[in-house]
Amino acid sequence: MRLEQFEQFLALGKLRHFRQAAEQCNLSTSALTRSIQTLEQELDCELVTRSTRSVHLTEAGEIFLTYCHETLTNLSELKTKLTKHKSSECEKIVIGYTMDATTIVPLACGKFMQHHPETSIEMHLYSQSQLDEKLKLNEIDLAIGNSQSNVPENALVRLPDQLVLFVHNTHPLVTTEEIDRKALAPFPMLSCLSSSTSVQKMLQDAATALHKVSTIKVGNIDQITQTVKDAKHVAIAGIEHAKTIENNADLVIIKPSQESQQLALAVTTANKFSLQHQAIQLLSYIADEVKLQTGESLEQVEGY
Predict the structure, then answer these.
(1) Which of 107, 244, 257, 301 falls between 20 and 30 A from 136, CA-CA?
(2) Which residues, at least 6 apart from 11, have a Cβ–Cβ distance to it below 8 Å?
(3) Which residues are within 8 A (CB) of 70 and not within 5 positions of it... i.e. 6 or more apart?
């Protein structure tokens, strides 16, 4: 016997009509008839008597109808209890992070979840101001962003590996040794559209972090390539366009100096959030990743 047969018999017992019961169960009348006949064979008794207009349950059928109802009710209650039990067991941690931590947080969280599948992690990428606001509103539990006590004034945000900066080969930045916010400031930005929504979000966040929102112009890779020829713009694109840029002799990918990218990172906890065992474990993974990638320590600030 299968659970769907219990549901089918319940429908038949309620409607007392094969065609109507079959329609409710999304079956043909003949399929429902065969299912009931199979039940009768397995139970070795007659469950229904049929007439041209209606269906009557035998005494055995009435007993079996009660059994079907109780079984399905108990199963539903069991599923509800198990769902509540699972929810109570599964700790959820909501993390917000800035572009500076975009190469660190997803990787660290991925490593953590491999060893702690019972913990659910929700990650959101924000600008530093958005991150601060989300913390104040207690909409996130942990914030990974700049250590405000140790951020060089002109430091360039750590761009994710999925983004590249490029200019025309006659652009002044080609020969500039220190590419930071100050070096980028005079040049309006061009942004290549991406087919990936996550990369497109990164491009928008990068423009905000680089203070280029007021000057940015958006287009496809061909339009950006044509515009950047004036050597008066700096352009940013997703990694999907890296090969096209590299293969174009007129374009040069520029990279921020290592010093300007080595920003100290800090984790701040929301007031409502208490550092339980799993959260402490997660922070150790993030701290290890920060140390591995930057050589710096993760500064911790409890209670925003």
Answers:
(1) 107
(2) 21, 24, 25
(3) none
Let me know: does 96 contact 134? Beta carbons within 8 Å: yes
Lookup: tokens for 249: 């002799």
CA-CA distance, 173 to 235, in Å (whole number)?
12
Tokens of 66: 């009660």
Sign of the C-alpha dihedral, residues 26, 30, 36, 38? negative
User: Considering only 152-166, 260-274, 275-289, which range has the smallest mean pLDDT?
Assistant: 260-274
pLDDT exceeds 60 at position 90: no
The answer to whether residues 6 and 68 touch, using CB atoms and an 8 Å cutoff, is yes
Any residues with CB less than 8 A from the CB of 271 and at least 6 apart, and which? 138, 303, 304
Query: Among residues of the chain, what percentage have pLDDT more than 70?
Result: 86
3-class DSSP assignment, residue 270: coil
The tokens for 263 are 């920003």
Window from 22-36, 44-58, 232-246, 267-281 with minimum mean pLDDT: 267-281
Reduced to 3 states, what is the DSSP secondary structure of residue 213? coil
Stronger pLDDT, 151 or 256, i.e. the higher one: 256
Question: Do the Cβ atoms of 158 and 255 come closer than 8 Å?
Answer: no
Of 70-74, 190-194, 281-285, the one with minimum mean pLDDT is 281-285
Q: Identify the residue with better confidence: 206 or 66.
A: 66
* pLDDT score of 150: 46
3-state secondary structure 116-163: CCCEEEEEEECCHHHHHHHHHCCCCCEEEEECHHHCCCCCCCCCCCCE
Q: Could you give the C-alpha distances from 15 to 53, 57, 215, 226, in angstroms and in order?
A: 12, 11, 68, 71
